[in-house]
Every structure is written in structure tokens, then in C-alpha cells.
Amino acid sequence: MKNTFDAIVIGAGHNGLTCACFLARAGLKVLTLDQYHTVGGMATTEEITLPGFKSDLHAFGYQFANLSPVPQELNLSAYGFDLIWPDINYSHVFPDGGIISMHRSLEDTVQSIGHYSKRDGETWRRLAEQFVQQKDQIAAWMNSPPATLAAANVQRSQMPHGMDEYRFELQSLRSWTNEVFEAEETRLFIGALACHASIGPDDAGGAHLAWLFASLVQILGNRVVRGGMHNLPLALAEYLRSKGGQIRTGARVNKIVLKDDHAVAVRLSDGEEIAVSQLVVSNTDPRQVVVDFLGEEQLGSDLIQRMQRYEWGDAYFVIYLALDGPLTYRAGNDAARSAYVHPTPPTLGYLSRIYTECRAGMLPAAPMILMCNDSAIDPDRAPANKAVMKLIALNVPYEIRGDATGKIPGVTWDAVKEAYADHLIELITNTYVPNLRDRILKRVVHSPVDMERVFPSAVRGTITHGAFLPYQSGSLRPLPELGQYRTPVPNVYLCGSGSHPGGGISMAPGRNAAQVILGDLKGA
């Protein structure tokens, strides 16, 4: 078997492509493989409903990537990558028609919060300014391999308020928002962003994530990739090819082949083996690498067992919509101009009930729904005078054990998904968007099971390669033995969202893994 490639990257999602780009830029001959029909993974854009209606299948907002140096380092604008910064990043709407909006202008956001609490508005100004002061430090944390737990503890102990910071990192959303905000509406406005990572109001770590997410969006924007999120991985793919890298789609890996405890090839599901001379790096979820690609024979039963208890988080449920024109929100036009809309009652108790129902295996009666106004921000994604959007229920069970709606029989997603979609559309139409139901030209529904069928790394219908939990973060993500992008096999690496800093569009795991790999090659 002839060694053809220096490096093989498994998975052409945005992190896999980012890693491949830096390896190719360093002079390695790189092949990237993906089981899907195109590159991008969960950062793809497709006409899933009707021709001319371009839906981002999963990722829509470009947030943490605002802190990434990758677009500049790889000159991605030369390959068609461009961003739109909305005037309104997101809005939270309430059943009575009330609204708070995160405007591009901090002053406008302060005023919007001030309709419910002027004190909360000034508190938000202070919190956003705190992010500005810490932005460079946060970017360095995100775009570097994680410090070891021991090193992080030493660093924290040397900070003037290190123990306060440690408390904040572990604090729940409810605890923190009750401390700093007086209006329940403000608590929901800031706190609902933690739900994007399946963190409930009483989960550890929710406070820090909500502050970080909301502050980053306030200062740097909930930007959108012009023409669809797919244009980010497409730009990375073009850069990779410009450096001699190759990409094969429709090629699913089922084994990493070892010889003398080193990877020497990858085997595809059709039996083809592709030789590699230096290294293999995987952008898939960490379970596939540990359990499927390497396995107990290579890694031992202890690591396999601990990988099997890795926590994935709550599942997602998506409704893609082609609409016969823009929507009219009960809360007014600012909601229609927002990249995201969060529609909920103004209580943290509402969020608690959702997570209780979801984690008990129940179909939540009124899940937290993220409304993505794709074409309101990027009109070219839909035909003239039409609209495209998606609704994401952020907290549903993967395995159904009951029904909190009281009207949907069945315990398999294939049996209940359309009825559940009917229920959610009815809920939004009756409470928040009166013309939603009548505007729908076509819808396509993806249950958690559908998501996993399309993208195997969407394990149990999740999209972050593992739950955001204190014991699955930093150098502990996904497991301590794998927390520096390395595996026990010396030339097999991880570069996906199952590694620091985690899920979402950031390009950080891919870039960080490339730093580690190139450092190892230099020191070899």
C-alpha cells in the first residue's frame, strides 16, 4: 500500500477544513474526507424546502468566530467569504406583545432594556463594557490549546478576584440573573442565549456562558454569512485546494488502520483503504474516533467505557420554512428585522419547566424556540417578495417517553414529528406571529433522529459534539486523556467541537489542533 498523503482529515466540517488548511499551508499533502455529498457538515446551506429558498441547515449566526483570526490569516474574503452585520442582533418577544432587542448600538440596547428596568439597562452597559476590557484575553483563551487543569487553577489563584471568577464560571443562570437584574424580562433576554447550548436555568455554568454569548453579540454582532453559512466552508475548501489539498465527499470512514501503534491508513465503509504517512486527524464527534475508528483493541476498555458515559446534552428539533412573504410579529417590526427571535413568557420558571419535561423524556408543551429570520437579514436567500426561515426547538428528548402537550400519541419521532411541528406552529401563530401559519408555502421537519441520520456526528440529535458542562470543558473536553487534541495513538488527533473551546462556528478547535500537530511534527 503506497503512502500517498502526509495527513488525512476525517470530516469536512468547518473545523476539519480549518485544520486541513493550516496543515496544507505548512507544506503537508492533505486529503480531507466526508461522508456527506458536500463540505461543511453542520455549516451547510441547501434549498431544502423549495427551489430558490436557501436554508442554513443548522448554524446561522456567526458569533464566536468574530474572535477568530482565521479569515484574515487565510484571506477568506478572496474566496467569496463575506459577512452581514444586522442592525438588530436578536430580540426577545413576550406573549403580551412586549419586546427587548439587542441592537447593534449598545445605547439602543440599554434603552430597549430600560423599558422594563432602567437599572438593568445600566447594568447591561457595565457588563458589555467588561467584555470589551476582556476581549483580547477571551480571544487568546479561545484560539489556543487549553491550559491544563493545574495550570488554570494556579492562574486563577493569582488573579486579584480569582475565586469570584471561579464562582462565576460555575454559577447557574438563575443564581446570576437574580443577583444582577431586577426585571424578569431582562433575565430571559440575556439568559435565553444559554439555551442555545442546552444549558437550563439551574445548570452549572449557565451564567458565564450567557454573559459571554450576549456580550460578544452586543459588541461584535450576530453576523450572518452572505449567501448562506455554507460560504464559510466553501471558502475554506477553496483555500485548501489552492495549497494542493484534496477533498473527497461521499466517502465515509469506518476505521483508522494501525501498525505498530501508529495510524497508517483509513478504511472507508466500502472497504477502500487510503494510506497516510504522518497523521490522521478527526473532525467527527469524539465517540466515533474512540469507539468506532480506534476501538477497545487499540485503546483498552477503560477509555471506551468512559467515552460511552460522555454526556451529549438535549436534542434539537428543526422546522424549515418557505414563506409567501415576510412575517408580522405581534411585538412589532423590530422583531421582524432581528436575526434571531426568542419567543417566551417572561419567567425563568417557564424555562425550568421545559428542561424538566425534556429531561424526563416528555415532548415539551412549549419548548424554547429559536426563530431564525434568514432572509430578513440576507434577502437574496429567498425569491423576491418571499421569505425563508427556520424554527429550532432547543430542548426536546431523543427518546420519547411521554407527551406534555396532551394531544400527541406515539413514542417514536418518525410517528410524531409532523404532529409536533403542527403544535409548535400553532403555538407561535396564536401567541407571537399571527400570520405565520397562513404564510407557509412548504415546510420540512427534521427530528433529532433525522438529524443523526443525515449527520452521524449529530449524536442523539445534538449539534455540539457534547454537552457544555464544567467537567466537559477546557482540558477536560471531551475526556482528560483527549483534552489537548491528542489521542493515545501518537499520530491520531481530534479537531472537532468535542474539543476546546467546544461547539458553534468558531474555527478554534480546527486551528488549535493544527497548532498542536505542527508543534508535534516540529519536535519529532
Automatic annotation (TrEMBL):
Lineage of source species: Bacteria, Pseudomonadati, Planctomycetota, Planctomycetia, Pirellulales
Residue intervals passing through the bilayer: none
Keywords noted in UniProt: Oxidoreductase
Amine oxidase domain mapped to chain residues: 16-518
Secretion signal, residue range per the UniProt entry: none
Assembly mode: Interacts with COX5B; this interaction may contribute to localize PYROXD2 to the inner face of the inner mitochondrial membrane.
Molecular function as annotated in GO: oxidoreductase activity
Keyword Oxidoreductase: yes
Protein name, UniProt field: Pyridine nucleotide-disulfide oxidoreductase domain-containing protein 2
PANTHER family: DEHYDROGENASE-RELATED, PHYTOENE DEHYDROGENASE
Species the sequence originates in: Lignipirellula cremea
